[in-house]
Amino acid sequence: MNYFLTEEQLAYQQLAREFARGAIAPVAAEYDQKAEFPWPVVEEMARMDFFRLWIPPEYEGLGGGIMELVLVTEELSKACGGISLALAGTALGAFPILISGNDEQKKKYLPVLASGKGLAAFCLTEPEAGSDAGAIQTTARLEGDHYILNGTKHFITNGGVAKYYTVIASTDPSRGTRGASAFIVEEGSEGLTFGKKEDKMGIRASATCEVVFQDCKIPRANLIGREGQGFMVAMKTLDKSRPGVAAQALGIAQGAFDHAVRYARTRHQFGQSIASFQAIQFMLADMATEIEAVRALLYNTARMIDAGEKDFGRESAMCKVLAGDVAMRVTTDAVQIFGGYGYMRDYPVEKYMRDAKITQIYEGTNQIQRNVIARHVIKDSASGA
Ligand code: COS
């Protein structure tokens, strides 16, 4: 389908496609097996300027938007959904600064992120605050010119490898979601340590760990926005980052599909290629149709966000729901088309299936996305929209 991408967007897409084929695909299985963070690949991604794409030019970025981030994430994820997350996770960690940071914070942090010399991580989730993000227990107490943070964040993407952590903590627990505030915590801050490294089912090349604050002392200047705005900053961040998860899911689905079509053409049973059987053809047709439906919704949502539309929480959630669910179905069917070989680690499709699962879970489970969509639908109906 022709999405009428600009010359520049086509160039980024092509660059990312070639990079994914040449620099990610050959090492994806090895990083997955070792569950190791792919520093050499990430350094190469930085040299390709992928981290600059979505950062405004005044902060040493290339001035692209969500569309450019989506295009590149999709391409990288075709080769490895885990490795692509170094980029998408950094965008997630940087969004609170981009959305609500002051100019000084933007000038200090965004150029470093743009260069890829530092990665970012977003710290919202806690052991007792997953879907119920308002239940965070991490606190931030103002003492003179510093905030003192205490608490534990877990399942943090880029945890332990990021230079900057954007953290949601409560400055006034009595006020619930209205008492939450957002902060920037730098690597090496006093009282910042990293806990358990997670041993995951998929996206194993991505670093995921606990981030622990024990009387962690940070300058008062690291408060993002005002005290009490943290929950709103977190929600706006997620509205903006969910298309990135959808792009990751789309890339994973497309990658698995491409393998499945090639395999169906070359695998012979009963004296003919299995692609000649209608049972396989119908599976391929459904997979291709669903993938294209995701792409159409996602690119249009990205364009809507980049055009300056204010309220895109509904569309953003729709992208993530559809893309995550499609990625799970497509990758499962890709394994099915490969048959017994598909179940073996020697073949690439089981990894896609493992990588796809997380896209239905993180940055808000697909059940939470449906809540978000339903709230919008019902509110719009009540207001006569
Ligand atoms: N943009 C701006 N503000 C928003 C918002 C959004 N998208 N969504 C909610 N808010 C505001 C509300 O307007 C409300 O403000 P007021 O207190 O001024 O009225 C406040 O935030 C609280 O909103 P709400 O009452 O809807 O909060 P809930 O506790 O019911 O939680 C959900 C809402 C479930 C949507 C939220 O907790 C959520 O997104 N959970 C999933 C979290 C998640 O994605 N976790 C993944 C970890 S990050 S990788």
CATH superfamily of the largest domain: Butyryl-CoA Dehydrogenase, subunit A, domain 3
The main sheet orders its strands as 1-4-5-8
Report the bound ligands by name, code or SMILES: coenzyme a persulfide
Count of the domains:
3
Return Rg in Å: 21 Å
- The CATH topology name of the largest domain reads Butyryl-CoA Dehydrogenase, subunit A, domain 3
List keywords for this structure.
Butyryl-CoA Dehydrogenase, subunit A, domain 2; 10 helices; binds coenzyme a persulfide; four-stranded mixed sheet; 3 domains; alpha+beta; single chain; four-stranded antiparallel sheet; Butyryl-Coa Dehydrogenase, subunit A, domain 1; Butyryl-CoA Dehydrogenase, subunit A, domain 3; about 375 residues
Short description:
The protein is α+β, with helices and mostly antiparallel strands and 385 residues long.
Overview of this structure, please?
The radius of gyration is 21 Å and the shape is globular. The chain has 10 helices and 10 strands. Helices cover 51% and strands 15% of the residues. It has helices at residues 7-34, 39-47, 66-79, 85-100, 103-115, 230-266, 278-306, 313-338, 349-357, 366-382; strands at 120-123, 139-143, 146-157, 164-170, 180-186, 192-197, 208-219, 223-224, 268-269, 272-273. The chain folds into 3 domains: 7-118, Butyryl-Coa Dehydrogenase, subunit A, domain 1, CATH 1.10.540.10; 121-228, Butyryl-CoA Dehydrogenase, subunit A, domain 2 (Beta Barrel), CATH 2.40.110; 231-383, Butyryl-CoA Dehydrogenase, subunit A, domain 3 (Up-down Bundle). The protein has 385 residues and is α+β, with helices and mostly antiparallel strands. Strand 2 (139-143) and strand 3 (146-157) form a beta hairpin. The model has no long low-confidence stretch (mean pLDDT 97). A 4-stranded mixed beta sheet has the order 1-4-5-8. A 4-stranded antiparallel beta sheet has the order 2-3-7-6, covered by helices on one side. Strands 9-10 form a two-stranded antiparallel sheet. Bound molecules: coenzyme a persulfide. Coenzyme a persulfide (COS) binds at residues 122, 124-125, 131, 133-134, 177-178, 231-232, 235-236, 238-239, 313, 362-364, 368, 371-372.
